Every structure is written in C-alpha cells, then in structure tokens.
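pasting for ref
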Amino acid sequence: MNEITRNALVSIAREMVAKKQTGSLLLSVRHDHARRSAIIAIDNGKIISLSYGVKRGMAALPLLQAIDTCSCKFNEMVLGRPIIDLLETNALLDAIQSSQLVIPQSIKPSSEFTSGSGFNQIKAIEILEQQLTLIIGPVASMILDDALEELGEITNINQFKKLVKFVANDALEGQERTKFPMDVLNKVIK
C-alpha cells in the first residue's frame, strides 16, 4: 500500500460519500515509531463510525486530524458499530481535513492515565492493541473495543490480565491463544 496524505484520504472518503457507498477505509498510520490502525466506516454514504487505536467516535477525531500520511485500504464491510454523537458526515470530513478544529476538552483523548497503583491503563491497552494488530490486522481495534465494552473499565493489572485473556480467547487459536497473553504481559510489566 502506498502512503497518501490526509487531504487525499478525505478526497477518497468524500467520493465514497458522494457515491453513497458502503464499506470501511482501513488506515495504517505511523505514530511514535509504531503503526496504529484507524477505521472510517461509511454506510450508504454516511460516516457512521470513526476509530483510531482504542479511541472511538469524536475522541478519535483529534488523532485523525494529526495524520500527515497513512496507508489506506478499502473493505466492503462496515467495520464498527454506529456511533450516535458524530458530527454530520460533511462536517466530519471538513473536521478531519482541518487541523484547526477545536474539540471540547471533555472529549479530547487523554495522553496518559495512571491509576494510584502506578498501572498505566492507556499504555497497556495500546501495547495490547499493537500486539494483536500484528497478528490479526486492523480488525484488532474492533475486537478490543468489544472486549472493553464487555468487561468494563480497566483500572488495574488484574483487570488488564482478564482483558488480555478474554481477547486471546476471542480472537486467537492454537498456540497463539496461549502464547499471546504472556507476550503482552511481559511487554506491559517490564
């Protein structure tokens, strides 16, 4: 896949919207020396879902606005559940294209969260998503989103261990299912 600019990405999305297409734009973005997955889901010409890593909806917008270049691939499936609080499609595309839009503080993604125990939930979940993406690709963010919805907020290492095991059982098979939790926990606890 070739790298495209954020403006080219928005042009592709606008064309899909104009043609009332259904599907998902799967993005691979270089971020802090690693690749992050992002998805723009479109149903019948309307953006119904945004994701960037573990951020969903409007919380993903500032991260999408920060993209300089990315790889982009179209998938005919709508990957992601509809999100109610999104801007209207054209306003959303304008916002992605512009790096000037100010997002209210209440929905800005936090760069870091550390609970009193010293456990950094955001960093741990990012590591989990990176490792899962290496094995199963961009759909990892959706599987992780579903797992987080099922298990609730992760605030300590024991809850995180349950999340890792849950994701492994849900998404992996064979030796990967057993090896994956140990690999992830070794990276998080190091």
